[in-house]
Amino acid sequence: MKKLISVLLFCTLLGSLAACSSSDTAEEAEKETSQTDMSGQEAEDAKEPERGSESGEGNKALVVYFSWSGNTEKVADSIAGQTGADIFKIVPTEPYIDDYNELLDIAAEEKQDGERPEIADSINNFGQYDVIYVGYPNWWSDMPMILYTFFDSYDFSGKTIAPFCTSGGSGLSDTVNSIKELEPQAEVLEGLHIRDSSSSDPDGAVGEWIEGLGL
């Protein structure tokens, strides 16, 4: 009888050991599978930032413009489209009036008083750009005074400035020389003038100008 009990106890112990061994094996297998899956996911995640880090590289040109009627904006868009440059619109903190005749009076007063209208936004990482295309309408044979605010706000040392302008027929006037005086440490290139009547389709003139600059 004692032998029978001993045999039964021994069999029970062997069964428990086998179950534990099977459980441990399954747990180890689960860990290995989990680790393999985790390693695969980590490798996949590591590839994603590489694609993002490549976007925007080599973008060293910037188109900056102020446009009241929309004519200068069309030229700016053409330049950005043909060069791949980034683009920034100068927006006054206090918007200009819509009436053209009243606008002329305001522009004349700003010029006479040497005002510096405030710009609503600023340009991040301005230092990364080597070439700055700067566009504006011709107001009273000059740049709008908010352009003077722009030139006062950033360091153009060692940069290349390519001015472009729209007007009814007064051309660039003396604005290129004004920019040279404002930014003596920059290289100021030959400017582009587009008549208001041609601003709706500026691609041809813009393309010739860009090619002539040799940038």
Chain-wise SSE layout:
Layout: H1 2-54, E1 61-65, H2 71-83, E2 86-89, H3 100-113, E3 131-137, H4 145-153, E4 160-167, H5 175-182, E5 187-188, E6 192-195, H6 203-213
Parallel strand pairs: 1-2, 1-3, 3-4, 4-5, 4-6
Helix content: 40-55%
Helix tally equals 6
Total E-strand runs: 6
Strand/helix succession: HEHEHEHEHEEH
Give your account of this protein's structure:
The chain has helices at residues 2-54, 71-83, 100-113, 145-153, 175-182, 203-213, and strands spanning 61-65, 86-89, 131-137, 160-167, 187-188, 192-195. The chain has six helices and six strands, in the order αβαβαβαβαββα. α5 (175-182) links the parallel β4 (160-167) and β5 (187-188). By secondary structure, the chain is α/β, with parallel strands linked by helices. α2 (71-83) packs across α6 (203-213). Residues 1-59 have low confidence and may be disordered.
Summarize the structure.
The chain has helices at residues 2-54, 71-83, 100-113, 145-153, 175-182, 203-213; strands at 61-65, 86-89, 131-137, 160-167, 187-188, 192-195.
List descriptors.
alpha/beta, six-stranded parallel β-sheet, 50% helix, disordered N terminus
